[in-house]
Amino acid sequence: MRKRTNWFLNFIGMFFFLVTTGGAIYWKWFRPKHQRWGATDDEVNRTLPGDDLLPNAQINVTHAVTIEATPAEIWPWLVQLGQGRGGFYSYDWIENAMGLDIHTAPHILPEHQDLKVGDIIPLAPDGFGVPVAILEPERALVLHGDTRTPGKNAPPVKAGEFLATSWGFYLFPQTDGATRLVERWRTDWTPTPVNEFVYRGFLEPAAFVMERKMLLTLKARAESMRTFTASAHPTA
């Protein structure tokens, strides 16, 4: 009996050691890298449209990718974002395992190009989504949601608490004809130990995995469309 008890205590001790060590490695090494994946110092520190929507954001991440296409060629892929629209260009199988019924479009959808400020970008089949807060054609698209704002599109949170987020996409043309696509995600919440654990420990790293895939897919879609267009209309 004593041997079995000692084995159990050793197992628990090793488990907590591994969790603590893994958490420390993530926090000190991996987290600072994924918070700014692909972004330059200037892009990380730059003030972007929509930053003022969450002046005290507790999570503030900036990701970026270079796309060999113009802002005009990338913009149609961005404005068709959403469940039941063009999808989110990420891991559909993960989203669908959560019952979200999301399917990434392989091409531009003309019926989903007329996006306006105030429109809701659906995240789920039940109509839950995030409103468009800022829309500057071929320059900036910012979504913003806050549970303190009345509306049917707010996610459920514990009574007396709040969750607010902004999600922006920005296009910066380069002198060589390429474009920098910068994505910034900012989130604020009621500071409680549980919320800190959930949002920093789970939501933030999970969001990075999905957002990285999203940017890479947008890059591939826009560049492949440009290549197809160029091959279909070769110059003399």
Walkthrough of the structure:
With 236 residues, the protein is α+β, with helices and mostly antiparallel strands. The protein folds into two domains: 1-34; 36-232, Alpha-D-Glucose-1,6-Bisphosphate, Chain A, domain 4, CATH 3.30.530. The protein has helices spanning 2-34, 41-45, 71-79, 92-97, 193-232, and strands at 59-67, 120-122, 129-136, 140-146, 163-173, 179-189. The chain has a six-stranded antiparallel beta sheet with strand order 1-6-5-4-3-2, covered by helices on one side. It is globular, with a radius of gyration of 21 Å.
Name the descriptors.
alpha+beta, Alpha-D-Glucose-1,6-Bisphosphate, Chain A, domain 4, 21% strand, 2 domains, 5 helices, 39% helix, 236 residues
Q: What would you say about this model in short?
A:
Helix content is 39%, strand content 21%. It has helices spanning 2-34, 41-45, 71-79, 92-97, 193-232; strands spanning 59-67, 120-122, 129-136, 140-146, 163-173, 179-189. Helix 3 packs across helix 5.
Look at the structure and give the CATH class of the largest domain. Answer: Alpha Beta
| Class from helix and strand fractions | alpha+beta
CATH superfamily of the largest domain: START domain
Mean pLDDT: 86
Q: How do the helices and strands line up, and which of them pair or pack?
A:
Blueprint: H1 2-34, H2 41-45, E1 59-67, H3 71-79, H4 92-97, E2 120-122, E3 129-136, E4 140-146, E5 163-173, E6 179-189, H5 193-232
Antiparallel strand pairs: 1-6, 2-3, 3-4, 4-5, 5-6
Helix pairs in contact: 3-5
